[in-house]
């Protein structure tokens, strides 16, 4: 299993999309009767699992069982039994196996498409064990450090202890911070060293003094 890093539940975009879709369906069916929302859950579940999804081009029922269950509209006189013979002429296990391979390829294509769109214009940042990094103090994870708008938004430098993957790293954060030491790459910035800091400080002082003389 590939878990997301701490304090970043928004990484699971699939769950967010499903919850948003279910909320929209519930609000459409209840029509203001908010007290009995739990009575509609079985209908919402059946309708959601029977609809065709954009990523797979088939319904969740078809992904699991290979067919959609019947609805009241399907309870009509049966046509010729020969119409129910599968066109591919294969057994159900073989049919499901091929369908799952096709779905897997389709999901992979959609994922690569979304990744390419999301990473457009971004530069991939990779750290290695022993690198020095700055840590971004997010307000939701470091509330005591961000009580004021004038408080520092970052802290450092810290050593990278372990690279879990390209998006998650473990750093040598002291225990006084009271948080988990694993962070997303978005919260880390390369540390250039003290020489770079002194150069930036001198440059800032030169600019300030020139403005004062002007």
Q: Could you list some keywords that capture this structure?
A:
5 strands, 214 residues, elongated, SH3 type barrels, disordered C terminus, 38% helix
Description:
With 214 residues, this protein is an alpha+beta fold. The chain folds into two domains: 9-118, no CATH class; 132-213, SH3 type barrels. It has five helices and five strands, in the order H-H-H-H-E-E-E-E-E-H. Strands 4-3-2-1-5 form a five-stranded antiparallel beta sheet, with no helix packed on it. A hairpin with a 2-residue loop joins strand 2 and strand 3 (168-171).
Shape: elongated
Biggest sheet architecture: 5 strands, antiparallel
Mean pLDDT: 76
- Helix content range: 25-40%
- Unreliable stretches (pLDDT < 50, length at least 5) are 194-214
Number of strands: 5
Give the strand order, joined by hyphens, for the main sheet: 4-3-2-1-5
Gyration radius, to the nearest Å? Answer: 27 Å
Order of helices and strands: HHHHEEEEEH
Beta-strand percentage range: 5-15%
> Could you say which structural class the secondary elements and strand pairing correspond to?
alpha+beta
